[in-house]
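About this split. The held-out portion is used to measure sequence recovery: a designer receives only the structure tokens and must propose an amino acid at every position. Recovery is the fraction of positions where the proposal matches the reference. Here is one held-out target exactly as it appears in the evaluation file.
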């Protein structure tokens, strides 16, 4: 009932983890693989091991999370060598174009990986802007990636866009290059969350500025899923604001083929996938649907 397909890869459930949450160590990846998630995506990797930003670098309250992890990861070879029992996406987030090319070429030869998710949207690298917000850099970079002629399917993790002109500009670049899927959205860059017990910012790096996730970002996630579903031929992976099965259903209505869970996975652990799979199944049954294709993209609008 919840089966789906992303870029030609079959998933038993359309629900899986967002990159960054419980997916940095091999043990975490194995735990995800043994859960009822439909796939596993790794923490975004860099060329070398990174300790990441100073702690505390994660904070949450009832409506949102904030993180400034700073790309803490074990380096691309670590992720390239892990074998899992379900579709395994490796997320790549090089600190330079050259680093990205090196990682993409290496990971492209790894048959244990089904797809590469290229992260163009990390908001937390001190002194670096998000490539997804710099259309000239993004276009030049994706043209070079295309010239490699990757064997693996390639997806992009995009930042949230808020302006119709930006949706059009990003889509033009995506349509000029061979991109198989888009993951919309990364965290909302550079928010502040206040710890109301102490009147202090929730996290230490960048004096409290970091990427916002959780239920507050759902509307923005849905608009990004919808726009890129309309403007590109890519499969869309929704990410943002998913707390329950209805939230997954809403992403699919907007056009998503699969949906990732970030903040709620962090709060609840891998049993979140059992609960959300069940809840999504219930919503579908109540509507008389037995497959995602019966309602994907079928969002109603006023005449
Ligand atoms: O590691 C992080 O700080 C991080 C990354 Br790479 C990302 O893509 N999104 C995010 O919220 N945090």
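Reference sequence for scoring:
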């Amino acid at each position: 009932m919840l089966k789906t397909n992303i870029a030609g890869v079959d998933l038993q459930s359309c629900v899986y983890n967002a990159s960054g949450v419980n997916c940095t160590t091999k043990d975490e990846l194995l735990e995800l693989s043994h859960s009822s998630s439909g796939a596993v995506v790794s923490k975004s990797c860099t060329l070398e091991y990174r300790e990441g930003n100073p702690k505390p670098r994660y904070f949450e309250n009832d409506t949102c999370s904030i993180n400034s992890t700073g790309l803490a990861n074990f380096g691309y070879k670590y992720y390239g060598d892990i074998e899992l029992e379900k579709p395994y996406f490796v997320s790549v987030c090089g600190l330079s174009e050259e680093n990205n090319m090196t990682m993409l070429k290496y990971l492209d030869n790894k048959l244990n990986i089904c797809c590469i998710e290229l992260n163009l949207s990390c908001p937390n690298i001190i002194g670096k802007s998000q490539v997804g917000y710099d259309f000239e850099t993004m276009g030049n970079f994706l043209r070079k990636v295309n010239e490699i002629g990757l064997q693996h399917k390639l997806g992009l993790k995009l930042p949230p866009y808020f302006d119709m002109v930006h949706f059009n500009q990003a889509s033009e670049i995506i349509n000029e290059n061979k991109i198989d899927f888009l993951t919309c959205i990364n965290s909302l860059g550079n928010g502040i969350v206040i710890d109301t017990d102490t009147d202090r910012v929730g996290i230490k790096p960048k004096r409290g500025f970091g990427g916002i996730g959780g239920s507050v970002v759902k509307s923005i996630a849905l608009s990004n899923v919808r726009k890129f579903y309309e403007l590109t031929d890519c499969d869309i992976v929704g990410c943002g604001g998913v707390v329950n099965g209805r939230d997954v259903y809403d992403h699919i209505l907007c056009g998503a083929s699969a949906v990732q869970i970030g903040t709620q996975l962090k709060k609840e652990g891998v049993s979140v996938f059992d609960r959300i799979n069940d809840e999504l199944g219930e919503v579908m049954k109540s509507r008389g649907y037995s497959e995602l294709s019966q309602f994907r993209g079928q969002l109603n609008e006023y005449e």
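Annotator remark: The chain has nine helices and 16 strands.
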